[in-house]
Amino acid sequence: MTDWHEVMRSVPRRSFTPEVVWADLGPGPWARIDRGADPDEWERVVALDQPLVTQFEDGAAEGEGLATSSLSMPAMVVRFLEQLDPFDHHRVLEIGTGAGWTAGLLSERVGAGNVTTVEIDPGLSAQAGARLKAAGYEPEIVVGDGAEGRTDGAPFDRVHATCAVAEIPYAWVEQTRPGGVIVAPYSAGFGCGAILRLDVLGDGTAVGRFAGSADYMVLRSQRPARGPARAWPEAGDRDVRISRTRLDPRSLPLGPGVVDVAVAAQVPGVISRFYSEPDGATLWVLDRDDRRGSWASVDYEPGANDFEVQQAGDRDLWDEVEAAYLRWVRWGRPGMERFGITVTAAGDEVWFDGAVPAPVRRARARGRGTCR
Ligand SMILES: C[S@@+](CC[C@H](N)C(=O)[O-])C[C@H]1O[C@@H](n2cnc3c(N)ncnc32)[C@H](O)[C@@H]1O
Fold first, then answer.
1. What is the residue-wise DSSP string for 175-233?
2. How confident is the model at residue 368 (pLDDT cuts 50, 70, 90)?
3. How far is the CA of 365 from the centre of ligand 1 (A)?
4. Host domain of residue 228
5. Ligand 1 site-directed mutation target among 148, 172, 217, most atoms within 8 Å of CB
6. Is there a domain that residue 353 lies in?
């Protein structure tokens, strides 16, 4: 297997890092690191095993809002590339060029002539192209919606998305040769996402398992609804149903990453937010696509026997999430590698030990190919 740490020594992250980046260096807002103003701090931060954000709000904001492009954490880059495991001469499609570092690593491994990288943001793509050229690599650089893959150059042996998906774009399956591999961060939106490795079969199907937690920025067209949790109750006048639960709601956000996969698999269309204070905490579960949709909140109070639940909308989202969590507990708290996905033209199906645990088939959404 390729020693990706060795490849990184030939293709260092610093060669692809912009002059200004933002990093999460502790409590408070993003730290802005400007190479011109503080070259030593820039070198120090670039060498950390931390993601470095390079863009917010698709370029419409600086240092605040939604992070929309980054150089990923090196340890995580290695974990994904190990799952991808390209061989000599393999043709590789990357979705999400970003700063160009992954494309550089892939070019070093299989040769730049075998690498195609797609980025939706023309400015980022141009800067990445310049950095790749300066580093001595000239892969095919495409500006476009990676959800459509790349028909030119297909079939690919490997497809690697470096932005997360809630639903695998079927074009990626169609454009990968039988026996080929798709590796992507998977993020249904509930808690943290996961590494997903899919093998492509020759019958229009791809199948594979999750391989650990990974939190990545989401493919533009698949981003969930935005806003703080309070935006859901504020979005419409709906009767709030009050009940109580004896399950400590922190069991979900503070549990192992597999909880997020297990709950998302059984309760489609739900995202979560967790706010923790020294004297309590609130877990919110929210309609993924629409702030006017269903929502629920559970308040944890230290020492209480049970906790207040508020629910509104068509679905009793907390009841669904609690039942899904306890079902996972009843299964014996299985690990993430026992969950997987089968992708067909009809949609994705999440499974547990090969069996579909609940109503989890997500029909392939129509007209979601274009990015917002
Ligand atoms: C985590 S960054 C990728 C990091 C990159 N691999 C690197 O080495 O710098 C994710 C990138 O995916 C891009 N992206 C988001 N949606 C996309 C889409 N639909 N098609 C192509 N790129 C997309 C973002 O603009 C962002 O640059």
1. TEEEEEEEEEEE--SSSS-EEEEEEEPTTS-EEEEEEEE----B-GGGPPPPS-TTHHH
2. very low
3. 21
4. 222-330
5. 217
6. no
